[in-house]
Write a structure and sequence with these properties.
Blueprint (H helix, E strand, L loop, with lengths): L4 E12 L2 E13 L4 E5 L6 H8 L7 E6 L2 E2 L5 H8 L2 E5 L10 H11 L4 H14 L15 H12 L6 E5 L7 H18 L2 E6 L2 H7 L2 E6 L2 E7 H6 L4 H10 L6 H10 L3 E8 L4 H6 L7 E12 L2 E11 L2 H14 E5 L3
Parallel strand pairs: 3-8, 3-9, 6-7, 7-8
Antiparallel strand pairs: 1-2, 1-4, 4-5, 9-10, 11-13, 11-14, 12-13
Helix pairs in contact: 3-4, 3-5, 4-5, 5-6
Length: 340
């Protein structure tokens, strides 16, 4: 099956301060229908430019962008407007009309598309019920919390039943609890409605929570891509490794690690666990080597239905036995000993 979004050899340059600035350089990217695909990168990596190419708000300098079977690279503006109706968009700052009610905001794209009033009202009610805000249909945006505003934004983006939903830093303005709720809703949109979701973010936690696949963007280039699990488990770029390290809350901070070194006299190792295969047996068998262990920090959670996490462990016993346990741990985890 052809991908629903394909970027081939895409570059994008801008004229600025009398010179040429390259925002994207040689982007090749394919996004399959029905998946949640994340594009992650720091500020200035080219994420916003990329999303504006996908919805036709910017034109490529070179290369092609095919969206839902249509090469939008050279389409006239009139045709682009038609394509944009098949691509929903949600934003970091919500972009709601303050003078319109919640229902009015959801109905606005339907009015532009020429739907009858009765059909607009019916569709708005369906979507507000889906996002859990039917009882707030007649409220105004300034009467809503940030999370509720983003739910309205999602409902509005889905109004015309687009097959693609673009989420541009859609949780950056929200607190962690509200972020989790919005991400769970995006996952429902994907799983229950079959909508392809493209998430643009600088937060690896967002990738960890919902993405099927991810592309890591740095200085306008895709420096690595793969399943979310593979990128977390074996990041292959410096940028990917930096993002993963910030998202591994199971790892102690430098301050916490210094405290652990002071409080625990044994040898301390950090084991990054992928699938958790064999680590329990190795630790259980440590006693046979005269080695005792204590779990000091971390935990194991789930990523794409596979176990993933990090454990900080104190090993106490003869050096020969501890060395053997560390050697065995390295066969099933990424294990490093913390130097004193």
């Amino acid at each position: 099956m052809d991908p629903i979004i394909r970027l081939s050899g895409v570059t994008k340059t801008f004229e600025a301060n009398g010179g040429t600035v390259s925002a994207l350089d040689g982007i090749d990217l394919e996004i399959a229908a029905g998946e949640i695909f994340a594009v992650i990168g720091q500020s200035g990596a080219g994420k916003s430019t990329l999303v504006r190419l996908i919805n036709g708000l910017e034109r490529v300098t070179t290369g092609t962008v095919v969206v839902d079977g249509v090469d939008i690279s050279t389409l006239p503006e009139r045709r682009l407007r038609e394509v944009r109706r098949r691509t929903g968009m949600i934003f970091q700052q919500f972009n709601l009309f303050s003078s319109r009610t919640v229902a009015g905001n959801v109905m606005y794209p339907l009015k532009v598309a020429g739907w009858s009033k009765a059909d607009r009202e019916k569709r708005a009610a369906e979507l507000l019920d889906f996002v859990g805000l039917l009882d707030r249909a007649h409220a105004y945006p300034d009467q809503l919390s940030g999370g509720q505003k983003q739910r309205v934004g999602i409902a509005r983006a889905l109004a015309t039943s687009p097959p693609i939903l673009l989420a541009d830093e859609s949780t950056s303005a929200l607190d962690p609890s509200t972020t989790a709720d919005v991400l769970a809703l995006l996952k429902r949109v994907n799983r229950e409605l079959g909508v392809t979701v493209v998430v643009i973010t600088h937060e690896m936690d967002v990738v960890r929570a919902i993405a099927d696949r991810v592309a890591v963007l740095s200085a306008g280039r895709v420096v690595e891509s793969g399943t979310a699990f593979d990128v977390f488990a074996e990041p292959s770029s410096d940028t990917g490794r930096a993002f993963v390290s910030t998202a591994l809350h199971d790892r102690p901070s430098e301050d916490e690690l210094a405290r652990l070194r002071t409080a625990h006299p044994g040898r301390i190792v950090i084991a990054d666990v992928v699938d958790g295969a064999g680590i329990g047996g190795i630790l259980s068998g440590a006693a046979a080597r005269g080695v005792s262990f204590e779990l000091l920090y971390g935990g194991i959670s789930s990523l794409q239905q596979r176990s993933f996490g990090s454990l900080t462990i104190e090993l106490t016993g003869p050096d020969e036995g501890v060395d053997a346990v560390i050697s065995e741990l390295r066969t099933v985890t990424r294990t490093e000993e913390v130097a004193r």
